[in-house]
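Narrative progress, year one. The postdoctoral researcher (J.K.) led the effort to move from monomer predictions toward full complexes, under supervision of the PI. The following entry was the first complex the group processed end to end, covering 1389 residues in total.
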Amino acid sequence: MLPIDPAEALPDDARALYETIRTMPIVSPHGHCDPSWWAQDTPFPDPAELLIVPDHYVFRMLYSQGVALSDLGVGVPRAERDPRAIFRLFAKHWDSFLGTPSRGWLEHTLYRTIGVETPLAEDSADAVFDEISARLAEPGFRPRRLFERLGIETLATTDAALDPLKAHDAIAASGWGGHIIPTFRPDDVLDPARPGHRDNLHRLGAMTGCDIGRYSGFLEALRQRRAAFRARGATATDHDVPVLATTWLDPQEIGALYDRALQGGLDADGARRFYGHMLVEMAQMSAEDGMVMQIHAGSRRSTNAALRASHGPDMGADIPVAMDWVGGLDALLNRVGNDPALRVVLFTLDEASYARELAPMAGHWPCLRLGPPWWFHDSPNGIRRYFDRVVETAGYRNLAGFNDDTRAVLSIPARHDMWRRCVGLHLAEQVRAGLFGRAEAERLAAWLACDAARDTYRLKGTH
Amino acid sequence: MLPIDPAEALPDDARALYETIRTMPIVSPHGHCDPSWWAQDTPFPDPAELLIVPDHYVFRMLYSQGVALSDLGVGVPRAERDPRAIFRLFAKHWDSFLGTPSRGWLEHTLYRTIGVETPLAEDSADAVFDEISARLAEPGFRPRRLFERLGIETLATTDAALDPLKAHDAIAASGWGGHIIPTFRPDDVLDPARPGHRDNLHRLGAMTGCDIGRYSGFLEALRQRRAAFRARGATATDHDVPVLATTWLDPQEIGALYDRALQGGLDADGARRFYGHMLVEMAQMSAEDGMVMQIHAGSRRSTNAALRASHGPDMGADIPVAMDWVGGLDALLNRVGNDPALRVVLFTLDEASYARELAPMAGHWPCLRLGPPWWFHDSPNGIRRYFDRVVETAGYRNLAGFNDDTRAVLSIPARHDMWRRCVGLHLAEQVRAGLFGRAEAERLAAWLACDAARDTYRLKGTH
Amino acid sequence: MLPIDPAEALPDDARALYETIRTMPIVSPHGHCDPSWWAQDTPFPDPAELLIVPDHYVFRMLYSQGVALSDLGVGVPRAERDPRAIFRLFAKHWDSFLGTPSRGWLEHTLYRTIGVETPLAEDSADAVFDEISARLAEPGFRPRRLFERLGIETLATTDAALDPLKAHDAIAASGWGGHIIPTFRPDDVLDPARPGHRDNLHRLGAMTGCDIGRYSGFLEALRQRRAAFRARGATATDHDVPVLATTWLDPQEIGALYDRALQGGLDADGARRFYGHMLVEMAQMSAEDGMVMQIHAGSRRSTNAALRASHGPDMGADIPVAMDWVGGLDALLNRVGNDPALRVVLFTLDEASYARELAPMAGHWPCLRLGPPWWFHDSPNGIRRYFDRVVETAGYRNLAGFNDDTRAVLSIPARHDMWRRCVGLHLAEQVRAGLFGRAEAERLAAWLACDAARDTYRLKGTH
């Protein structure tokens, strides 16, 4: 027997609220899907390649249980992987996911999105593998058809500043109507601490024709790339900031730092100051061109040095760091934070900052909205704690709605469904506590499920 | 139809406990009401002036929604304000308060304390404005009559060391029996980082006749002011400490710092050391004269520089900072913390410090009591988290009971009622979990509603 | 009437899960019981000596209520104590424990483990004292018989590196079958900041015959002591780390630091670096010899200087400090953390680190398991928050199960029972939320009650 749909476990009042939003369109303004899937519209790969090898949520847990990454195909050339063996190994450790959101997403993906009818267990691994393979070969699972069937209204990808956006252009040229838009993520050209920064500056110059030999030319090149993204539908930018420390430097200092960055000669402190200044420049450009600025801050990347050396980044060893949002955003907010044209969405991995900093900040600054629980916290308890800690001080109108933030396209419905169940639970509790009535709860449910994301990211909705 | 009274939403067991404390006297040992209201006993002003313009909880939320402060009358001379237009703008954004304690307080104030019969909404703004105005004109809403009707047993105001306390004297001279007492808040003369500190020292000298040219004279002047407050019924002092760092300096160093402070010549570090020492002096004086010392620590004030420049402090941009209570109080506690005559009440804005520091400290030091959830955390979820995190380690007898901490007199019953509902909820859950029985819960309910505040602040109760 | 057994207050589904684990054997892999109790098997002392004088949970609360430690017999020679007077004073303040886990443990100990039939209250102190005394004189309460009756499968004590383990040898030589094993706690010889460190080094040399004049001889002596502990059944080591800062030094630097430590000449920074390096050496030895490494980090010890001076350490003034687990363990994990032979169990007092650091780390590093809630957090709410914050990211297989961590042998059943009730509550909620079914919940209940502790600490179970 398959596990029950967790929606059936909702209390009646929560279930009723959830049902009002269950089938609303999926608005996905932040995520990491590969746009070439829809440009090419070729079938998805085998189950291991689709569900395990690229999912750091999955393989980090298996690694913690003593499974070698190479046995999972991670860091192994595709031709040398044995997808069925990988899937068996995963199934053997299925119990270790009990209680995790990964388990919930995978169950939803397998049993509801793909339609597998055999419960996953160590001894059913092969059968499940075959069922998945059979379904993925069906025309309804081709990327474009799937996009439509899942009711995705808008899907934003995340793209480097130097990305020529050819896949997005191909989608547009194909005449297919799916609304897939890029997001401008310029850290590779902004942050001198990133590998290849100096080369990236030169590539940026070549791509835009701007004179990146001078700081003003660099800014102009950034404006050009922002415009190129906007021309392809982008409404937002994104920054992945390990340690948040915005700063505003006088023209001489930033010019001199830029000159040194061009030589590849900045030390760690200089790199931090340069990047801290560039975040403020980006906020100013956002106030000019209306692109919503997203800040994902506070992940200590690649803390397992041996794994980083052998396998590169994103191997499950990124661990959150305690945050000081007020100090970190001080320069940005005090330069441009009162500008009514600016919108900034903040994402934290330090829940201690929800009630202490983020909610009070969002409840004051007109530019700020709070992103939904991010990464480890995108989970039933994480979402409950988020509502518990932010709503009383920030209200609902300063929340950004939901982002699935996933690179696993098949998990998109699972993630939105989990959020919508949690919204139902939360709002039902508020009604039960006498904070507001059923009518207000329904309005807020729609806001949290769709409208907040549309409004925050300045998307046009279908309604 | 008016929103339901949240008390009706309580589960039966919580409701029963709440009913045992619902109508107990209001003991308000810490707040910011203006004593001149009761000295003069003139009617309260119009609804906008009463409920919106002075309430930073309200206007910060509207500011976060893009409303200009000037449109709310904030920073606008009273004669130039349009109270009805302000009230309409507030009503238009009434939805943005859903889920916040401000909404709960305002609903209680409007529908239960004032007796408005029309539900507030954008299209009822004028009607509600008129209803409020009509009620406020009634004799029962004059400050003294209202004080009696609300069942206020004691109300403490907060008063600068240099305040001549004329309003308190006028109340006493009037023969009216309301128990309104001052609280000694000497930061303006203790903290060299405050504007006008040097002038304040000279005013202190003039006021007391002490020779403030020497440090010993300064201490003597402080003792005199404490005595003057005590003579008017004060039982407590209060400190608003941005960064807590108590320290005990040798006589030479503190003398030298004082001399420089008198010249206005202390740098930031010197000012911090001076203030850190003065907090210990205050604790020593409290151990001598029995005044309960309150420390409200960890609010980063006025983080929006443009607003501070245009409108001054208290504009809704005060954001909490992470706290180290152990390090910050080390010098104070290790100098005077074992003295049985000392009582210190601690208030935090960093909930991470509840279970990690404050509860263990209160469960050890005889002088310490934990203040109730403060500011952003004075809310149903904030109160629930407070009980959840502090009681297991500190017990109930190390808690200070409730403070409304408000400058909005009409919200006093709303705030005590919210606390009492949360006390009922909390204690009912404890009984349900089998931790203790109904009899113990009733004793603790009375302790938390009234007795703890009376006992902590050394007030005489009516019972 | 006695208070109800809190198990009777469990909801039906939680109760049913709890009943599946209620009577399982007690596995106690970390605690502070005195092994000489079982070596000598003499009756336990009087009630005050047994329950109050040595329990810092109890006397810290009474101290916070203004009770003098000397009136509780703390720091008073045993011959000068009046046990009955101490017990009366404790009973007088029994109310101050309402809501604390100490109250729950004491109630379980009194009414269920000892079998007292009179409810404790101020006016029943003498009667309860007499009942306890009578029961303790029964043969069934002699340490060995009690150990068997309580169903203790394994009990680990905590023993200094220099402890000759004579009590353990005496237990083994007695032929009695109770499984009591030592735990290797070498901080006294590893941490130069500890009193007597230099003397301890010389004692270590004398004890092992190693040449501790050189660093290599010191390491060899440590290996010998580890082997001596293993020969007596030890499977684990333990470290009490105030500020966690592991580091790996080159041979020259550690050699030079060691030489200075031998002279007693290390300053605070040198001591910290030396100890930080030794923790990594210990991890390496654990990877070699298979002893599980426990790290209890983040307690600021003896923050009340006057009490420390008059009474010594462990007087209830140890207060947690905010933790940076990632930075603190960086050197250790990046040297040996990927070694499949290593196991490290982490214990925190900073709950903010549960979801932010510890769960992500345990969900990645193969060597890490998370210890159960420690000290102040070993309580119903503390356990609930632990499951709430760690399971979603770490799963259940990265948890270490339960430790009672007590020196109060009679409280062992109370502590395991509290954990098992909380396990029942937690898993019932997971089932109710639709996360998994009853069968999985029963498996996880057994894991959390016994199997995880056996597995984590490499103990052989009875099943």
